[in-house]
Amino acid sequence: MLALAALVALASVSSAEPIAAAQALPAASAPASSGLAALLRAYQVDLRDFDQFNDLRFDPVTWEAKSAFLARWSARLDAIDRAALDLTGKVDHAILALALHNETASIELARRQLAEMDALLPFRELVLALEHERRTLVPIEPEATAARLAPLAASIDALRGELARKHSAGEVVASAVVGRRAAAAVDHLHRVLSEWFAYYEGFDPLATWWLRQPIGEVSRALNEYARFLREDVAGLRGRDDDPLVGDPIGRDALLADLRGELLATTPEQLVAIGEREMQWCEVELKRAARELGFGDDWKAALAATKADHVEPGAQDDLVAEQAKFAIQFLKDRDLVTIPPLCEATWRVEMLSLETQKVLPYAVYNPQAMGVSYPTDAMDHADKEMSLRGNNRHFTRNVTPHELIPGHHLQGFMARRERPERQILSTPFLVEGWALYWEMLFWDIGYPRNAHERIGMLFWRAHRCARILVSLKFHLGEMTPAQMVDTLVDQVGHERFAATSEVRRYIAGDYSPLYQCGYMIGGLQLRQLRAELGTRVTDKQFHDTVLTLGPIPIELIRCTLLGIDPDPDGLARWPVK
């Protein structure tokens, strides 16, 4: 097992030789795993190959094939004598079991979502059948295939016309959520049909002759139908004032997701944690406001902090300067190993106006921090809001979150240490790692003055608010408009940025628990660090966590403390 002795062994690694240190970590912290690492790698490759070949969406045939694929892998896992494994092997066993469970759950979710919108997609089966025939090398019969496609455009037009009449009469033909999802499905099916025809076009003269005209008509009909679903049913026209469309999943689904993250905590308990942490932020904000001469008016102090920003065109230089400062800050305190290649391979990219509509601050892409700042295409009010929202002091907290010691260092190590464990990914570690560092930086003096403390507190309050608004939305206790108001009133967001944030939270593109992962994951790591106490140094803890893969923090705790993970995968460690 990875015992405390293995962690202590890392103390002999010299921080002056970061490459050697990084190379020493696996040997110090990764005993033999009874062959399960190889099994995880085999599953990782098999899953990638299966998904790359079977990439059709909204397709029960694909889901059936994947369910059979997962069943075969579950049988392989069940055949392993878990009791004979060492601790690392048992953790790997739990990782594969969770990965299989998550893939199965994603199929069930896809089935439910298709059932909600399938009446809007009566042409789905024909389009997918044509593509399955092509992929399984069934010879095409051009004239017969053209006869199958010839009536399709008219039937799509008729469906659109019928739905448009009902919609105009005030009938609900579908919810905005289902309308948006159905529009995406139509777009996908359109791409499938276009790629299907491209396979024959020009290469097979007879197929081209028979199919070009009906394909052109179907393509037009699908485009118009998708536009109707997106704009008329969902109300999404690509404007800043588009409605905020989301799909609350409910308490039972949240509980199931929490179990999947190995968290022994209810949504209500997480909300209480968010409220507690928000109160702490308000106390500290008022303290900083008094220091700046604003009394308890922290919003006035926040406004003064926002006013301190660089000129347009200078934000990339600011980020570079702040990143270098954070790296030196870490080195001076010997807090974590930073391999030279990691330190040398990051850059800054400026985000487009369209991207800033959902990412108003920053984002990490491999080896690059995407930076938001006003563009010349923004109107005056939006430019002013973007300047305020990306001021010096907010950005000073964001930069190490995205780069070093945050996601850039984290990703660099994840690609090198136990990469087979990337069959799992959890925001409670991915985002929690970066939040843990924000909290530690606060504790050890990273903010040098009241404005910089306010910059860090803004983000800490933001993480608290993310817990509150996302969970209350999914519990049915808060509307999207109320979510925006909460971010504006309780955190101090600019309204444009708050709207962009909420639009991303509720879009359904990632886990409903993702927004909780920041603060809750950070608290889990702090809780684990406190549990280890003085038996290890901060650097030993940080370097070792970076070698364990993007796995639930419960499994990291089991690894570091020598605890056998529960065979049934149930969590037992509540976050506090």
Structure in words:
The protein has three domains: 31-116; 121-233, no CATH class; 304-549, no CATH class. 66% of the residues lie in helices and 2% in strands. It contains 26 helices and three strands. It has helices spanning 4-9, 18-29, 36-53, 60-78, 87-117, 124-135, 142-149, 152-168, 176-200, 205-233, 251-260, 267-291, 298-306, 315-333, 340-344, 353-356, 380-389, 392-402, 407-414, 427-443, 450-474, 480-491, 495-506, 514-532, 538-545, 553-561; strands at residues 347-350, 362-365, 368-371.
Dominant shape: globular
Query: Biggest sheet: strands, sense, closure?
Result: 3 strands, mixed
- Helical residue percent band: 55-70%
Tally of helical runs: 26
Overall residue-averaged pLDDT value: 90
Short summary:
The chain is an all-alpha fold.
Question: Topology of this structure?
Answer:
Blueprint: H1 4-9, H2 18-29, H3 36-53, H4 60-78, H5 87-117, H6 124-135, H7 142-149, H8 152-168, H9 176-200, H10 205-233, H11 251-260, H12 267-291, H13 298-306, H14 315-333, H15 340-344, E1 347-350, H16 353-356, E2 362-365, E3 368-371, H17 380-389, H18 392-402, H19 407-414, H20 427-443, H21 450-474, H22 480-491, H23 495-506, H24 514-532, H25 538-545, H26 553-561
Parallel strand pairs: 1-3
Antiparallel strand pairs: 2-3
Helix pairs in contact: 3-5, 4-5, 6-9, 7-10, 8-10, 9-10, 12-13, 12-21, 13-21, 14-18, 18-20, 18-21, 20-24, 21-22, 21-24, 22-23, 24-26
